[in-house]
């Protein structure tokens, strides 16, 4: 099935087969995500922008990964054939959020501004930095990427269009 990118939320990739009964280890983009515990199907990328839907029979946490069992994948050989592929869910499968909440993946593409509303760049990634998440943005001035701790006092405010940060002179050079 061919889907629009805006319909999909990439959760991670199928890292490797686990055991002999078709289980797969999933490396999530957001290691804290609980999405796999709340969905009953998963999309697996079979080729460029082509996705196949699988019924998710079982998902369990095995830190720092998740172990999943997909309907129809019953052997290690079948699981190995899926390793390295991206996995996703439809945006419609995600729970609705309150007005002041957001999904981290929705930050990608938002403008980054400072406290004076000067545009600094565009968000290109958010990753788990161990102690806290890190926001990565591409700077307008030179095209290089800069990283900002995704915590107060660096993160000031998030809107539907931008992320406001405290841009301290020299810290991102």
- The number of helical segments is 1
N/C terminus separation: 44 Å
Helical proportion, percent range: under 10%
Number of strands: 12
- What would the principal axes of the Cα set say about the shape? elongated
Order of the strands making up the biggest sheet:
1-2-5-4-3-6
Taken in chain order, the helices and strands follow as: EEEEEHEEEEEEE
The secondary-structure class comes to: mainly beta
Contiguous uncertain segments of 5+ residues: none
Radius of gyration: 18 Å
Main β-sheet: number of strands, strand sense, barrel status? 6 strands, antiparallel, barrel
Mean pLDDT: 89
| Oligomer kind | single chain
Content of β-strand = over 45%
Summed up, what is this model?
The chain has one helix at about 75-80; strands at about 10-20, 25-30, 40-45, 50-60, 65-70, 85-90, 110-115, 120-130, 135-140, 145-150, 155-160, 160-165. The chain is mainly beta.
Task: Describe the protein's architecture and organization.
4% of the residues lie in helices and 47% in strands. It is mainly beta. Strands 1-2-5-4-3-6 form a six-stranded antiparallel barrel. A six-stranded mixed β-sheet has the order 10-9-8-7-12-11, with no helix packed on it. The chain is elongated.
């Amino acid at each position: 099935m061919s889907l629009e990118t805006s319909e999909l939320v990439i959760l991670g990739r199928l890292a490797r087969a686990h055991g002999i009964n078709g289980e797969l280890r999933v490396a999530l983009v957001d290691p804290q995500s609980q999405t796999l515990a709340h969905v009953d199907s998963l999309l697996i990328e079979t080729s460029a922008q082509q996705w196949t839907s699988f019924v998710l029979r079982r998902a369990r946490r095995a830190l720092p990964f998740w172990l999943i069992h997909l309907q129809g994948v019953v052997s290690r050989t079948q699981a190995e054939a899926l390793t390295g592929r991206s996995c996703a869910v439809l945006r419609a499968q995600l729970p609705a959020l309150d007005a002041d909440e957001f999904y981290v993946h929705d930050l990608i593409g938002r403008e980054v501004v400072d406290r004076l509303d000067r545009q600094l760049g565009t968000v290109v990634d958010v990753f788990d930095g161990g102690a806290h998440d890190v926001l990565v943005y591409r700077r307008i001035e030179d095209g290089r990427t800069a990283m900002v701790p995704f915590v107060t006092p660096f993160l000031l405010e998030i809107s539907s269009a931008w992320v406001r940060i405290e841009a301290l002179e020299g810290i991102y050079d």
